[in-house]
Amino acid sequence: MASTPSASSFAVLGLLAVQPWSAYELVAQSKRSLHYFWPRSEAHLYAELKKIVERGHATVEVVENGNRQRSRYSITDAGRAALADWLGTAPAPPTVEAEMLVRTLLADQGTITDFRTALENTTDRTLETLSAAVALGEDLLETGGPFPQRLHLTERAVAFYGEFLKLVIDWCDETMAVTSTWPDTQCIGLDDAARRRMATLVAEGHERIGRAQRHARAD
Questions:
Q1: In CA terms, which of 65, 118, 120, 193 is 20 to 30 Å from 55?
Q2: Quick one: which of 165, 147, 173 has its CA closest to 37?
Q3: CATH number of the domain at 7-87, out of 3.30.565.10, 3.40.50.1820, 1.10.10.10, 1.10.340.30?
Q4: Residue 98, C-beta contacts closer than 8 angstroms, at least 6 positions apart
């Protein structure tokens, strides 16, 4: 019995809805798109392709490619129907997976030097990711990419991801500044500055929730 489709299943199925792909081509396209905000290993993508075929949501055929043969995957009518049904459901709440936040919560088990070095490393690696994303954005602006007719959707995803990367960099910079006066990472507690920052976040959260509720009532 085929397994129940996951969000990753539908992400791969969505790529097949754009056009048929070989497994190699699909992985390459994923690295240009899904990988930035839905990262999955190549092995995971290959496994999802196999499951999609087992469910009858895609077909696979062997095609000649020069001196090699490749398996080419195409979405079926049942696959398009399943994708359409899934797109009509409510998405899961957003989640954040960030090792730096784990290290932040556990920083009192290590040294202040280790913590600040981890912040610097996170900044550096995020800047590298931002640089790659900027290069991709420049390519899309210049060439339109392989699917220029879909750029109105790509732009929205790129806008979110770009703001997220800038948020990470800004947070690292702020945390470096906050920790610049810490003698170590232990027993500091909520000082006046930290209390003000947290109170501001709570107040802004209440304001955002209230504004959304007022709009909902108006509708």
A1: 65
A2: 165
A3: 1.10.10.10
A4: 168
Q: What is the pLDDT along the chain (219 residues), one digit of tens a residue?
A: 667 899 999 999 999 999 999 999 999 999 999 999 999 999 999 999 999 999 999 999 998 877 888 899 999 999 999 999 999 999 999 999 999 999 999 999 999 999 999 999 999 999 999 999 999 999 999 999 999 999 999 999 999 999 999 999 999 999 999 999 999 999 999 999 999 999 999 999 999 999 999 988 887
Spatial distance between the Cα atoms of 178 and 180, rounded to a whole number of angstroms: 6
Where do the H-state alpha helices sit in the chain? 7-18, 23-32, 42-54, 77-87, 99-105, 112-143, 151-178, 192-218
For residue 207, give Cα distances in angstroms to 23, 67, 137, 198, 214.
47, 63, 34, 14, 10
Query: Largest Cα–Cα distance of the chain, in whole Å?
Result: 69
| Separation CA 25–CA 4 (nearest Å) | 25
From CA 104, how far away is CA 175, in angstroms rounded? 10
Q: Are 122 and 168 in contact (CB under 8 A)?
A: yes
